[in-house]
Amino acid sequence: MKYLVFTICLIVLTTFALNARANDAQAALTDSEIGHSVPGYLSDEEKQWFKTFYEGNMLADGWHEITAYLLSRTPEEERSAQRLALDNLGRKIVLEWVRPNDVRKVDTDMLRTWGSELKKTAKQDPQQLARTIAAIDQEVEAVLD
Q: How far is CA 14 from CA 10, 11, 19, 26, 132, in A?
């Protein structure tokens, strides 16, 4: 009987924790969709890549999902600034990444590396996220110069 009560309590607590985390992630995702307007000057192919960058595909998370995760690990009082920094960084990256392969300066391996760095920081040391975002932003700026 004690085992049954313990198991039920554990299930209830786990469900509560998962629901709270899902709600935070959903709120962060909704808020992170600022700035997703597709520039009209992009070709049809570039527009598809633009959409893939933000929404992801079977092989990779999109920027919206990454942003939602990062914001869910960010203290509430820092989310607004973090959201703006991530939106600006994503926009800077995507506008270069969608260009034809022979001229673009940002490639898919860079996206993977930066996404991994951001997720790793969010998981292991969320207080350093702003610093990691700034470092990646500087790296992107250097690549684009």
A: 6, 5, 9, 18, 31
Residues contacting 12, CB < 8 A, separation 6+: none
**Which parts of the chain are beta strand (E)?**
none
Residue 34's φ and ψ, nearest 5 degrees, are -65, 140
Per-residue pLDDT reduced to its tens digit, 1-41: 665 555 565 565 555 544 545 445 444 444 444 457 899 99
Domain residue limits, the chain: 2-144
Site of tokens 């939602």: 68
Kindly report, residue by residue over 117-138, the tens digit of the pLDDT: 999 999 999 999 999 999 999 9
